[in-house]
Amino acid sequence: QEKSCHLSAALLGEDSEISQEQLYELLKYAALGKCHNAAQPSWCRIYHQSHLAGVVVVVLHEMSQLHFYRFYLQFKHLRRVFRHRFTLTPSANFPVSLYGEGTNLKPQNTPQGLTSTSSECITKSPDLQCDPIIQRYGEKKQGLTSYTLTLEEQKKNDYPIEGSPGCKGYISTECDQQRTDSSPLFGLDCEMCLTAKGNEVTRVSLVDARGQCLLNELVKPESTVVNYRTRFSGITKKMLLPVKTRLSDIQTRLKKMLPHDAVLVGHSLNSDLQALEMIHPSVIDTSLLFARSEGRRFKLKFLAKAVLGKEIQCEQKLGHDPTEDARAALELAQFFIEQGPTKVAELNLEMLLTAEKLAEVSQNKAVLQPQRCGFQEQLNEPPPLSKPCFLDCLQVTGQKPLLLGRQGLDSSGLCQSNLSTSNKQILQRALEDVPLSKFSIIQFSLGPEYLASHLHAGLHEKVRSKLTDMLTIYAGPFEENFCMKSVKKEFGRCGPIQSLTVVTETFQPYVCIQYEVLEAAQLAVESLNGAEVAGSCIKVQRPVTAAMLDCNVLIKELELDVENEGVIYVAGLKKSLTETDLQEEFSQLKDLETLFLPKDLQSGKHRNCCFLKFQKTQSAVDALEALNGRTMKGSELRSRNALAPGHLWRWIWQKNHSNGKQGKHIFYEKMEQLSDSEQDLRKKVKKLDHHIKKLYRSLQNNTLCIVLFPGVNSTHGSQSGLGLMGIKDDEGRSAC
């Protein structure tokens, strides 16, 4: 049975603020894994990383944590799907940080002879001993059997192997005769489409040692086609309509055509054999034959041009020609065998690739600069950084990462970068291209008209004002000479109080209490409304404002938020209790995973409440029943389901304290002027959430998906970012 990936992260409370460096750490490990010396991130763990189908990062350009909580109800998909969230340190140059500390265009080890982008200017390295090809094969020419993959190499590179658990039902070519250096070579290439089953063959080409085409056949997939991948495969729905040939027919024909000592040649041939569901014992993989340092691979298009002087996969053509690709791979293998490793090493392919990249960069600058794209200016002169470019590291996967967005995201030539004019276009391209890439960055934007600083300021005040109202309750009426100490003590049992004042404008006294956490305010409304406090039967309610009319809806949705699953809030703790004391007191609770004891961010002292996270939702329900009304060290406990994730609790506290106790509606007049814009903005956000939902549903299972509100760090002020992440499972939700 195939292992499923899952993610764990200790993100409850104050530890949930993640730096750009920590985010880069996660992305690097997810994309490269241990086999490329990437380390598990320090703040979360990915289990079974090698089974990840891909990594997709969705960036919401110039949006912050502020946007997520202002439009919490509109982000219906995001809050219901992603189980892990974290506050993200804002960056003035977010794309550069994301790509792994800068996309520096200047190679770190540029030889003295490299003064222009022409290949003629490249000096050959005098020391070939360090070349990975020489290190692997030696300097002398050898026969073809020296370059076929061993059984261990096939296993390591995901080739179908007889008897492997994942190859049940695969057909053997039955080419079991001993290979010699005179065994015949055959070039093989397939084009695939994406179906409900996964990758399925739509076209197969086989060429002999002279390059003559023996087979070039369209194949009808067994399952429903999800994506024809026309831009790459050249296959359309119309082309496959009359096709009767099935995979089983192709398998039979290949078995008949291949002699018993045949050696198959292809570029990343494992993908072709997996799609064909066939097992062949003797293969030469040109992506591994010409492998670069640290296992990185050259693309077939580049090798064909650099080694054979041939242009293949031209942009003018619709999709790849599998016969052309099969012939190119075959000729590359023949060149390697005939010329030997030394001749290949002397081609200095690494430097040729560098020259080609620099030429692309020069061309891209000329094309993109007049457009004044937002990220283009940021990436033109990146700071010198010690670590290798993240995009370059990703080339280890054998293909360029995919970047889609409105701005010029990448100027380094290291990515498949596409500019689009609308979120809808970006989504359409993403649905086509993301399944073809192991690492994708998709950027959506609300548009420049919604990112103006004055609009952002109004948005900030609205969020702060609504949070303040949700944290505030009014209680009363009380008798004229009521005991304020008794009131403070009773309401303090619900959680930490920020302020308590007497309302004197009413006929009888009321009190206004502002709490520091949402759970405390909600607990006060639920448990003390209609109760007798300080000798009076009182009513407890929140402020009645237009913004608060949907408060009950918001509270309900917060309770259903996936990040709050299995988390409960406990109040009424004595401040003298330490975290160790509480661990002992709660140790008998089943499946308790984490205890978070909030601190005052200024004094460092503990609050009189805590959050408990359980491994199972039912265990949290049982704990609520066990704890409500229980006495601990002489103090009665009160508890309920959590409403605010740990990072939101911290954010609320910072917002309340950074704004002091000034009037809640100081931007009221300005906000009225922006009401039409915000109405339109809500629709935009709702549509954006729908785009992300559609993209997420199209992802393969075991895909790590991270949605980033990168935050704002500019001269107008700083706003923290927010990250949501998870690994898609069979049910379409993100796995824990």
From TrEMBL:
PANTHER family: RNA EXONUCLEASE 5 (PTHR12801:SF82), RNA EXONUCLEASE REXO1 / RECO3 FAMILY MEMBER-RELATED (PTHR12801)
Organism: Prunella fulvescens
Top-level taxon: Eukaryota
SUPFAM superfamilies: Ribonuclease H-like (SSF53098), RNA-binding domain, RBD (SSF54928)
PROSITE patterns, per database record: RRM
Protein name as catalogued: REXO5 exonuclease
One of the Pfam families matching this protein, by short name: RRM_1
Start and end residues of each RRM domain: 471-545, 566-644
Single GO term (MF): exonuclease activity
Gene encoding the protein: Rexo5
Annotated Gene Ontology cellular component terms: nucleus
Listed CDD domains: REX1_like, RRM1_NEFsp
SMART domains for this protein: EXOIII, RRM
Sorted UniProt keywords: Exonuclease, Hydrolase, Nuclease, RNA-binding
